Amino acid sequence: MNMHSTGVIDGEPKVRHDWTQKEAQSLYDLPFNDLLLRAHLVHRAMFDPNAIQRSQLLSIKTGGCPEDCGYCSQSAHHKTGLKASKLAEVERVIAEAKKARHAGATRYCMGAAWRSPKERDMDAIVAMVEGVKALGMETCMTLGMLTPHDTTRLKNAGLDYYNHNIDTSERHYKKIITTRTFADRLETLAHVRASGIKVCSGGIVGMGEEKVDRVDMLVTLANLPEHPQSVPVNLLIPVKGTPLEKEGKIDPLEFVRTIALARIMMPASDVRLSAGRTAMSAETQALCFFAGANSIFAGETLLTKDNPGEDEDAALFGRLGIKNAGARLRAP
Fold first, then answer.
1. I want to staple 274 with a disulfide (CB 3.0 to 4.6 A). Which of 72, 232, 246, 281 is the partner?
2. What stretch of H or E contains 222?
3. Mean pLDDT, the chain, as a whole number?
4. In the chain, what are the domains?
């Protein structure tokens, strides 16, 4: 394998927006060691390979969502036993953000179980963004679909990132969600990009999809006008009472392949190892970090689901010689 075939030329990965499904699939299907070498060379060219950025996620409004996403414990369509809550008080959110900062998180993500935010809630949302920014942390929100007016307000408040996952391939999407379309998601991403807010968008694997769907999901993201600055890759956590409660089975090496392909196709993006780490061995996570994952969600809870605690992550990072940071070697 020569340097040109790895996608790294003169030390710089080539950033592209014209990937074909066939080309991406051929990368995904490479011998495992070849795929990992290629991904790691791209990763090492753009990032410190021994540093991981930590984000923390808080549910600011839980349950009662009118969407029917088949994986979600917070959907009003599913009988998961989760009770709906009101929007959290701004002061509580800021207090939790302070704790996250003290624990080493550099980005604070706030999620509400909505189809889209209502105007009556925007003042509180803006205050949360402003309060977390005042702590010196990066801010991220996930609130469902947005209008251009919403994105303008969030941008003016100082929001750094907006998360809106495409979840899976367009082909598989209709088997997972019926209450909003794949095109709806892309439209919100377009509004976010137009406002100047950074995009955080990825998906979930283990939802009964085929490997072609994982590839197609990444092709969609890599061929956007601008690569998402953050690409979270989630492993489904099956929740009793949801349509996907019996899914989630996936070969760990297939998950690592997905991480590696994301790194190759979106070389300057943060690739985040997100939900599902509690089901991953230390060895699987280590392979993901080698393949290009350079960000994690920290803290014991992700919205309503379990996540490895600080002590567990610290022990793993210590074994791997990984620093609790995430500084770029160069700007994208």
1. 232
2. helix 211-222
3. 87
4. 15-313 (3.20.20.70)
